Amino acid sequence: MAPHHVLKCCQRSLAWIPVIFINLVVGWSYYAYVVELCIFTIPNNAEKISYLGVFHLFFIMFIWSYWKTICSRPVSPSKEFCLAKVEKEQYEKEQPDAQQDILKKAAVGLPVYTRTGTGAVRYCDHCQVIKPDRCHHCSTCDMCVLKMDHHCPWVNNCVGFSNYKFFVLFLAYSMLYCVFIAATVLQYFIKFWTNQLPDTHAKFHVLFLFFVAAMFFISILSLFSYHLWLVGKNRTTIEAFRAPVFRNGPDKNGFSLGFSRNVVEVFGDQKKYWMFPIYTRIFLRVLFSKEKS
Q1: Is 11 exposed, middle or buried (0-12, 13-18, 19+ CB in 10 A)?
Q2: Which helix (H) or strand (E) holds 121?
Q3: 288 and 132 in contact (C-beta within 8 Å)?
C-alpha cells in the first residue's frame, strides 16, 4: 500500500509541471513586455501608457480565466444516481443481464436518456454510480465528471460542466494576450533585427517575446476555433469523436438546442457576464437539457 500511495503522490506532483511551465512563461512575458519593452525600449510616454493599459487588461483577464479553470473542481453525480445499499449488494452478485435489470429499475425516474453502444444503462463500476447524460469517468481525476469534455494537462484539471466556460474564455484571452504582444512588439522586433536600435539587454527579450507570442497564438487559434464550433453545436470533445447513444440510437445532435440556446448553455442567459469567468448558469436545468425529451 505504501509504494502505491507514494506513486500516486508523485503522479499528482508531476501533474503540476505543465501548469508551472505556463506560469513561468507568462511571468517572463510580463517582465519582458513591461520592463524590457515598455520601460527600456519605447521612448514615447504616450505609447508606453497606452500599451501598458491594454496589456494589463488582457493580462488580468487571461490570469483570471486561467486560474478559474484550474481551481474549479469537477462536479460528480449527485447521490440520487447511486444505487441503494440493497441494490448495490444484489448488483455485485448477479450476472451482466441481471445487473442491467437492476440498473434499469434504478434509473426509472432519473433524467437519464443516453445509453451505451449496446443499449445498456451507463454505469461506472469504479465510482459505483449510474452515469448521468454526458458524464464520463476520468482516470486521471479518478472520478466521474459531469459533462466531461477532456482532461487538460495545461490546467491539471478536467474540463467539464463546472469550468467549460472558463476554459473557453482562457483560450480567448490567451489568444488576445499573445496577438496584442506580437502586434505591438513587431516594430521593435524589426528595429532590433535590422540593427536600427543599439544592442542592449532588451534585444534578446524583445526578439524572443515576438517569437513566443506568435507561436502560442498560432497554436491556440486552432484549438479556440474548434471549441467555438463545439459551443455552437452543444457538443463536448468526447461527443464530437463518438456520438451519444440515446434509446432510439446514436444522435450527434442530440443535445443541440439551436445555435443561440447552445451558446446560452455554456455562457448563461445574461450577456453582460459572458466575458467574465464567473458562474452564470442555472446548474441542473443546463445539465439535462436535450433536444428530444
Answers
A1: exposed
A2: none
A3: yes
User: What span, in angstroms and rounded, lies between the C-alpha atoms of 64 and 170?
Assistant: 8
All cell numbers assigned to 141? 481525476
Q: Which residue has the cell 445487473?
A: 99
| Residue pLDDT, tens place only, 18-28 | 999 999 999 99
Helix (H, G, I), strand (E, B) or coil at 90: helix
* pLDDT-based confidence at residue 7 (cuts at 50, 70, 90): confident
- Which helix (H) or strand (E) segment holds residue 160: the answer is none
Q: How far apart are CA 220 and CA 33, in angstroms?
A: 20
What predicted TM-score, i.e. pTM, was given to this entire model? 0.91
**What does each C-alpha distance from 265 to 12, 66, 189, 199, 260 come to in angstroms?**
32, 20, 42, 52, 9
Catalytic residue among 71, 144, 152, 178: 152
- Tens-place pLDDT, residues 246-258: 988 999 999 999 9
Helix, strand and coil content of the chain, in percent to the nearest 5, comes to: 60, 10, 35
Residue 199: per-residue pLDDT = 86
| pLDDT above 50 (res 34) | yes
Q: Where are the domains of the chain?
A: 16-74+158-287, 79-131
Do 231 and 266 form a contact (C-beta atoms < 8 A)? yes
The grid cell for 187 is: 516594430
Task: Compute φ and ψ for 130, nearest 5 degrees.
Answer: -70, 125
**45 φ, ψ (degrees, to nearest 5):** -65, -40
| Closest listed residue to residue 54, CA positions, set 39, 33, 82 | 33
- Active site includes 178? no
d(CA 133, CA 28): 42
